[in-house]
Amino acid sequence: MLGPRIAGRYLVAKKSHAAVNVISAISLAAVAVAAAAMVVVLSVFNGFEQLALAKLSNFAPPYLMVAPDGAMIADAGEICRKAEGSPAEGRGKTAVASTRVYPRLESMAFAVADNGQGRMAVKIVGMTPDDLAASGIHHAIVDGVAAVSSDSSVIVGVGPAMQLGVRAVEEMNSLTVYEPRRIGRINPANPMAGLRRARARVAGVFQTEDEEHDCATVIVPYAMAENLLSAYGEASSLAVYPAGGASPDRLKRQAEELGLRLLDRVEQEPETFRMINVEKWITFVMLAFILAIASANIISTMSMIVIEKRRDMDTLSDMGAPASLLRGIFTWQGWMIAAGGGLLGATLGCLMVWGQATFGWIKLGSANPQLMSITVYPVVLRGADVALTLAAILLVAMLLTLPIRALTRR
Predict the structure, then answer these.
(1) Domain ranges of the chain
(2) Model pTM?
(3) What is the rounded distance in angstroms from the CA atom of residue 114 to the CA atom of residue 117?
(4) 88-126: per-residue pLDDT in tens?
């Protein structure tokens, strides 16, 4: 094609005014810097998203089955057996072999330390010992052991441990949990009769680095939660630990067959990840706007090149070159500057992300790094983000054709 060949020659040829070459280089560098910033910033948000997901892994199961309307799940034991593919249920075709499913009960309650040091509202989570072992919460234990059992041993987050003054030691390890009765009438003359209570021994204290769980969660035996809530055989949700070959689509279909909804780890914490995504895409839009402003330098560059090559245009026109060819030459040149800057910037951005992930060049500032779970900025490079950055550059380059065409009108 004649237009791109001439445009390429004009782009690399020595200009009569050195300032034109300098301005062309500045235009390309501006686009490159904006493109690199987009790749790096999107990768940083990906890193924080992955970090948040990793923090959930100590507590949140891979999948959670819940009722579509948020109600309690009745006959939870039977549903768990069906979801696990028990042969007795006759659901071998749709069940996922070796999938483990455990009931959970969650509710707000009030906890009082038996040593009289504190009291607070807590979130109790009733879990079976097998569910607790599969959850990986034992990796987050900072005091005692991860154990809930029929003898009313519980584990608490660091928040309740500090506020209640309890620890996994004999003289400071007991508390009482109070829960309003769900069933029956309350006698105003004896309001304490409207509460169910259970005394528990603190077996361990956990810290998951997830503020929501660390500040108010108390993990209790599932049987204790059943008694406190009068929810015998019921569950707030079902924790699903799939087998290696179980696909999310198959698990989702199975949940729908049981009249439930399947949530992955991201869907279990929608507010956290929604906030990260909103910040990510608002930042992307702002950087795209900066990219558009940086690309506006290309218009001034092309204005100078059009003036510089006016005589060449007249010569080509006298030789019979159509006006579309003359416009196409400078349009292609503008595209080359934008595309060259975009590819260069995206490449530099990828290299910077790789370097940060490999060597951890940029550290997170803190007066006491030992209190932080990470010390360097987390980054995760995704091909979709690089493609999106290049698509934004292509869109800006296409919009540049309008003013560039106007510059070449005779």
Answers:
(1) 2-55+272-407, 63-267
(2) 0.69
(3) 8
(4) 344 444 444 478 999 999 999 999 998 877 899 999 999
